[in-house]
Amino acid sequence: MAGVITASEPSWITPFTGLSPRQLSKLVTALRREGVDPVRKGRPWSLPLEDRVLLVAVYWRTNLTLRQLAPLFGVSKSAADRIIGHVGPSLALQQSKRFRKDSRTPQADVTKP
């Protein structure tokens, strides 16, 4: 579809996400390593992983509604919602576990005065 935002056109990436094309590429590579995009049965995603990651980044950065965002990527608003629900948690920071120096039991994340 002509006139949609895509990761294959680097000029769209920085203005909408604040990421350089190289940063987005590294992010997509890391997600592939984590296994975010496995081959499954059923209907395939309408967008490649690069475009799905771009969609989530644009959603978080611009705070556009799904009704506004979906036509920019050439998908329905329900597809945009599914993409955000699937890829978004993989992009979120994971909670780190800190351990005491002398044991392997998790330490409470408490700041000392």
How does the helix and strand content classify structurally?
Answer: mainly alpha
Q: What fraction of the residues are assigned to beta strands by DSSP?
A: under 5%
Shape: globular
Low-confidence stretches: none
Main beta sheet: none
Radius of gyration of CA atoms, rounded to a whole number: 18 Å
Order of helices and strands: HHHHH
Please report the distance between the alpha carbons of the first and last residues.
Answer: 57 Å
Number of helices: 5
Question: Quick check: average pLDDT?
Answer: 84
Task: Give a topology summary.
Elements: H1 13-17, H2 21-34, H3 49-62, H4 66-73, H5 77-91
Characterize the structure shown.
It is built from five helices and no strands. The chain has 113 residues and is mainly alpha-helical. The termini are far apart.
